[in-house]
Amino acid sequence: AAPGGGKRPYKPALVFVVAAKFTPIRFYAPLCDKSHKNPEAGTIVDAPFLGVVKDLPSFYLISQAVSKGTVVPAHFTVLHDSPHVSVAAIENLTYRLCYLYFNCVAGVRLPAPLQYAKKLAEFIGTSVRAEPHKRLRRSFFYL
């Protein structure tokens, strides 16, 4: 039964996006004097010929500003989209999630939920090596 006593079964809509944090592709923004620079933070490259799988929407996101060296974009591929959210909305949400990481006042390369998952897995795997106490399950103790 549906929540609230309705008769329709609960069928949640799901958008499943995977991220590749290491990619060999680099992008540059042209300058007037025929030189180039790193693209600005928030640059999204969304071209059909750049996708890994032909029929799946994908995009590259440059989420943070880099003053030295070359910025490394993250590559995102939408594997499942049952509510049929527009790719532009997914790109926008992905970029905004890059600014919700507590340990940094600027944007980070991957969205905050990915950063937290990565940090937690590394911490538990290298230091704790056991199930955390139940009081810690709803806190950011690993930061």
SSE blueprint:
Layout (H helix, E strand, L loop, with lengths): L14 E6 L8 E2 L5 E2 L5 E3 L12 E5 L11 E8 L5 H11 L14 H17 L15
Antiparallel strand pairs: 1-6, 2-3, 4-5, 5-6
Keywords, please?
globular, 18% strand, 2 helices, alpha+beta, 143 residues
What would a concise description of this structure say?
This protein is α+β, with helices and mostly antiparallel strands and 143 residues long. 20% of the residues lie in helices and 18% in strands.
Fraction in beta strands: 15-25%
| SS element count, helices | 2
Biggest sheet character: 4 strands, antiparallel
Rg over alpha carbons: 19 Å
Estimate percent helicity: 10-25%
Q: What is the number of strand segments?
A: 6
Roughly how many Å apart are the termini? 39 Å
Output the strand order for the largest sheet. Answer: 1-6-5-4
Look at the structure and give the mean pLDDT: 86
What is the general shape? globular
Order of helices and strands: EEEEEEHH
> Which regions have little confidence, pLDDT < 50, spanning 5+ residues?
none
The helix/strand class is alpha+beta
